[in-house]
Write a structure and sequence with these properties.
Bound molecules: 1,2-distearoyl-monogalactosyl-diglyceride, NADPH dihydro-nicotinamide-adenine-dinucleotide phosphate, Protochlorophyllide
Strand order of the largest sheet: 7-6-5-8-9-10
Largest sheet: 6 strands, parallel
EC number: 1.3.1.33
Protein name: NADPH-protochlorophyllide oxidoreductase
Number of strands: 10
Pfam family, one: adh_short
GO biological process, one term: photosynthesis
Catalytic activity: chlorophyllide a + NADP(+) = protochlorophyllide a + NADPH + H(+)
């Protein structure tokens, strides 16, 4: 599979004019969108947790982390050889397409335990079975990225499981190129940006501390981007083109009531909303890298998988495609 670091397009990300809401990157806002008070509480408590845990004077919390984390490398009692423990990887949307293929490939190495984070438990179970994945290599956990409450519940459940987290793969997405009318997430955000970007953003933000604490040799946060969001490529010039404009729709909540459903404030266009969401995905990894890489040792990456026209992503598609 060809991996390509996403090239980003400054032209698609324009800063707002003075006096407009600023798309500054704060812990509780992202690209100008203000998450609900509930979400704010989660973000700030997650930041607090991180401070507490990284404060060397706070012995109690450090003791807790050593109690829950399994050392990545342990010495085998029998022959004294060093062995690497199984890595733990969460893959969102692992019930089909690229996510399932990734889960299967990692399971086959025998070196990973895969947490398949899926909205449809039965579909995921059937998919894992038909991919021939062995039960001991995976766990299915419910996650609906179109609900920020579900994201929080998933994170709580994961933390309670006591598993370390070594890699997070944000793979799930929806694409609605033929929709005439927008649809919405549980909190009322336009569905594609709400699921692909906001759901993954909250998930990543809440799990960042767990990745930080991983003692695995390579800890990663990976998001699946798309060339179709990059307007400096031919594919990215096929209309409708991604464009975040001055973020006025996002700042207004993407709910179609007192704001547009589109990030740039324009008319709803499902194909554009998807491409915009992928630009946000790619920008998120750039910003996470800038903010957190050095201090945490986490590798942040986005990748473009090439065109796989047979996946579920294209359940709705235009005849040209
Ligand atoms: C849209 O329609 C719907 O409007 C939207 O609602 C949604 O459903 C979306 O993605 C889903 O689809 C898609 C639209 C795109 O298709 C049609 O309307 C059907 C008719 C299109 C038939 C056009 C065939 C043309 C073949 C072009 C071959 C390109 C070769 C170019 C060579 C250039 C070399 C530099 O299609 C259109 O709207 C038609 C416009 C086609 C634009 C093609 C884009 C190429 C742009 C090239 C610009 C290059 C500049 C940058 C280059 C950088 C290179 C590094
Ligand atoms: P699929 O539709 O096969 O996979 C997408 C997965 O996301 C499905 O498992 C789907 O679940 C899941 N999903 C959708 N909505 C939610 C939700 N609300 N909560 C949890 N999971 C959800 O498509 P692909 O494998 O093609 O897509 C995978 C990634 O690759 C996406 O990020 C896509 O943008 C990206 N990509 C794909 C390209 C391609 O050509 N295929 C090209 C460029 C990027 P369910 O099974 O229940 O529907
Ligand atoms: Mg594209 C020449 C390069 C190129 C590449 C790499 C892609 C990838 N596409 C290219 C060109 C074209 N496409 C051209 C010239 C056309 C006719 C105008 C075209 C059309 C087209 C459509 C209608 N292409 C599409 C669609 C979709 O609905 C897909 C899409 O945009 O999904 C968001 C798509 C794609 N083309 C690609 C890739 C990778 C996709 C799927 C992108 C994704 O899933 O993220």
């Amino acid at each position: 599979m060809a991996l390509q670091t996403a090239a980003l397009v400054p032209a698609t990300f324009t800063l707002p004019k003075e006096g407009k809401s600023s798309p500054s990157f704060k812990d509780s806002t992202f690209f100008g969108v203000s998450l609900s008070d509930h979400a704010k509480a989660d973000f700030s408590s997650s930041a607090l947790r991180c401070k507490r845990i990284f404060n060397p004077r706070n012995g109690a919390v450090r003791a807790e982390t050593t109690a829950t984390a399994t050392p990545a490398i342990s010495r085998s009692a029998v022959d004294g050889k060093k062995t690497l423990r199984k890595g733990s990887v969460i893959i969102t949307g692992a019930s089909s397409g690229l996510g399932l293929a990734t889960a299967k490939a990692l399971a086959e190495t025998g070196k990973w335990h895969i947490i398949m984070a899926c909205r449809d438990f039965l579909k995921a179970e059937r998919a894992a079975k038909s991919a021939g994945m062995s039960k001991q290599n995976y766990t299915i956990m419910h996650l609906d990225l179109a609900s920020l409450d579900s994201v929080r519940q998933f994170v709580d459940g994961y933390k309670r499981s006591g598993r370390p987290l070594d890699v997070l793969v944000c793979n799930a997405a929806v694409y609605q190129p033929t929709a005439k009318e927008p649809s919405f997430t549980a909190e009322g955000f336009e569905l594609s940006v709400g699921t692909n970007h906001l759901g993954h953003f909250l998930l990543s933000r809440l799990l960042l501390d767990d990745l930080r604490h991983s003692d695995y040799p390579s800890k990663r946060l990976i998001i699946v981007g798309s060339i179709t969001g990059n307007t400096n490529t031919l594919a990215g010039n096929v209309p409708p083109k991604a464009n975040l404009g001055d973020l006025r729709g996002l700042a207004g909540g993407l709910n179609g009531l007192n704001s547009s459903t589109m990030i740039d404030g324009g008319e709803f266009d499902g194909a554009k909303a998807y491409k915009d969401s992928k630009v946000c995905n790619m920008l998120t990894m750039q910003e996470f890298h800038r903010r957190f890489h050095e201090e945490s040792g986490i590798t942040f990456a986005s990748l473009y998988p090439g065109c796989i026209a047979t996946t579920g992503l294209f359940r709705e598609h235009i005849p040209l495609f």
